[in-house]
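Q: What structure does this chain adopt?
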Amino acid sequence: MTSTRPFGIALCLVLTGSLFLRAQQSGDIAASADTAYQKKDYATAEKLYSQLSQSNANVPRYWYRLGVAAQALGEHQKALDAFEKAKAKGTPAFIVDFNIACVYASMGQTEKAFDNLNAAVKGGFAQPEQMSSDADLQSLHSDARFTGLVEEARHNQIPCDYTAENRQFDFWVGEWEVVPTAGGLPQGASHIEKELGDCVIWENWKSLGNSYAGKSYNIYNTSLKRWEQFWVDNVGGMIHFYGGLKDGVMDYWTDDMPQPNGTKLRRHLQFFNQGPNKVRQFSQGSTDGGKTWKVEYDLTYLRKDSGVAKGK
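A:
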């Protein structure tokens, strides 16, 4: 009896080699397509992504980039078909809907453009600058609906700008010289800014006369309906405060925290808004559960370049 094993092995090797060659060729095409796309050589990109989308139909990026290339070349229907495929294969809907809106605007189909632009924004599209600068959407600018959608996209981009609670600590934002409230030489300088979509009030403290420095991250906790501060420094310290705005004062507290000497320290930290150019920061500590309090420090922040920061 003649063995068929050598033939089977040979056939397996041929098939494996064929699959490997096909994968390698697909990878080479994908690399060339990406290069053309990045260089905005859309004619070449369209040709290559047409091939890739047929041979690898489940890859959403190929369909999306085919749509972008076709759109750039003015092939509107091909672009629309490719974008719909991209969305069906998993590309986020708000991204694709924005592109479809651009295509319809280019075709002069205003209502379809607005339908898709509205869907994009409602779905989370958060690039108002792109909406305003995209040449394909120029024809929509005179319509009041466009202005409203741009504002909604900005809301998606910086949601904390639209929440009153998140803006309660803005009075502390700025460049400050920090002096003792009772008078005396400057103790340090602090740069405080809004970060991460304006959700975080970020403090950067640097002491004068020594190397001590620290940062605090302040944010309104929407789940707990309170402000929280996380202070960290360059000597390994960390303090967690929580509280809120009360009678115009940002009022922070800590829990009773164990200290190296065996006691427990509770802190009460307050920020008083004393006008556009002055903030008082007042800290007290208690080691008896809040029965008595001792002043830890009392500082005044004077806004630089305002005429009040004299450091006397």
